[in-house]
Write a structure and sequence with these properties.
Two copies of one chain form a homodimer.
Chain A: H1 2-20, H2 26-39, E1 48-49, H3 51-58, H4 62-75, E2 78-81, E3 85-88, H5 93-117, H6 120-139, H7 142-159, H8 163-175, H9 177-183, H10 187-205, H11 209-233
Helix pairs in contact in A: 2-4, 5-7, 5-8, 5-10, 5-11, 6-7, 6-10, 9-11, 10-11
Chain A binds a DNA duplex through α3 and α4.
Chain lengths: 238, 238
DNA sequence: GTCACATTAATTGTATACAATTATACAAAC
DNA sequence: GTTTGTATAATTGTATACAATTAATGTGAC
């Protein structure tokens, strides 16, 4: 009886997944699930990831769980000790700072290349995004602003026309996702951020590669500075 | 009869592996095997990776093969199409150029941080490496030089004391491994490379971060230039 | 009490079995 | 000859079974 019941639950979970997600493979579903859980803090650094528990939790078998874990391991989000298990790794504040420094360089590079290679369509897309940013900044709609920020940078990743650079930046951006979310929720920062985005867009539009790179690097650097001032306020939480 | 025989072969392969390799998990063994095969051209872009064939070839089951493939997928070395299969992706010349550009920035950053943070032991290690480089450059021993080059950069990755940056650079270096191997096999380049390493080492020793960064970035840039002149010579091969 | 050792349980590692999907081959219709 | 449909084979996707390793527990000697 219990077995049948449990099986029914698993089947139901699976069915819901197949409907919602565009029927990707289970391992990618599991990968996204665990990564998000780590990045928004549901799984904390030091937590052990037990395959059977995860399998039950997600209603799948251990095989896709293992595939996902191997990927997370490669990304450095978990640490696997052979025959013992895997634990959540997470990032230290130092790691996040490092990522921002690295991003300021690589995003700068992306902006430089984008200024050289962007096509009219993507240019128009950027323009629209910046306009919308102006709108939502006035409205103080931080959720929309975060999304637009992601899109703005995403379009540039595409426009720089480098598979490798895009791949690197996509990952780096994900890692600091939670830090980034908090960052924009300061009105001052949102306003400053808007101006920075404007400058970057204008430099790209003018095909001024050097300026685009400079502004973008500054933009990322000021993001980390802002993050630090936020940290300073709730220092006791550490 | 055949089954028993085949099983014997697989067992023998496995035994040899357990002896030689320090008894790591199978998936990491498989991962390294396939990655190396792709990077030194045994598996060519477009080749299909069939799980059962790989399993037989390596004398393991499909599970570790799949785990390894998921990792390769994340690294961008293979492309997986659900329910169809995975094909080797490899890197285009443009990708390699991009990687060198990215490396010149990130290695520069690593050198900058290394100049600020390196300890006496690693500093001494660097000094020894540079001395040995001088020795083997005179001897035209390119195999040793390649190894020393890897060690030189490896020490700096360690010395910069950034988990994230080290992780990124380790991967990038692996991707251009085969390109790099050819590059040093030009006497002129070896000599020039030695001088560049010397300058970088001296800047780090003097704790001159800006100079270390500048010299390192130049070093990587000249490596790609050298690579291009090599390409120019055997252009017909494409 | 605690240390050593054996026994059991929990967990990971690997292999295999089965299901689902896609590719291939071949025949019939036009 | 081309196309369409169907049966078959090949391959991937998933789940489960079993082996190996490690952690936990308990028991007896001292």
């Amino acid at each position: 009886m219990e077995n049948i019941e449990e099986n029914g639950v698993a089947k139901a979970k699976r069915f819901a997944r197949l409907q919602s997600l565009e029927r990707y493979s289970l391992h990618s579903y599991v990968f996204n699930y665990i990564r998000d859980a780590i990045l928004d803090g549901r799984y904390k650094p030091g937590d052990a990831l037990v395959e059977t528990r995860l399998a039950e939790e997600l209603g799948v078998s251990r095989t896709p769980i293992r595939e996902a874990i191997r990927q997370l391991e490669l990304e450095g989000l978990v640490i696997s000790i052979p025959n013992k298990g895997v634990v959540v790794n997470g990032f230290s504040q130092q790691d996040i700072d490092d990522i921002y420094t690295i991003r300021s360089m690589l995003e700068g590079l992306a902006a430089r290349w984008a200024a050289q290679r962007i096509d009219q369509q993507k240019l128009k897309e950027l323009e629209e995004i910046v306009e919308l940013m102006g709108y939502y900044t006035k409205k103080n709609d931080f959720e929309q602003l975060t999304q637009l920020d992601t899109r703005f940078h995403g379009v540039i990743y595409e426009a720089c026309d480098s598979k490798v650079l895009k791949h690197l930046l996509d990952n780096l951006l994900r890692y600091v996702e939670q830090a980034r979310r908090g960052s924009l929720k300061v009105p001052m920062r949102a306003c400053q951020s808007l101006n920075e985005h404007r400058s970057i867009f204008e430099a790209i539009m003018k095909r001024n590669a050097a300026e685009a790179e400079k502004f973008m690097a500054k933009h990322i650097s000021s993001a980390i500075l802002n993050l630090h001032s936020l940290m300073g306020q709730n220092e006791k939480e550490n």
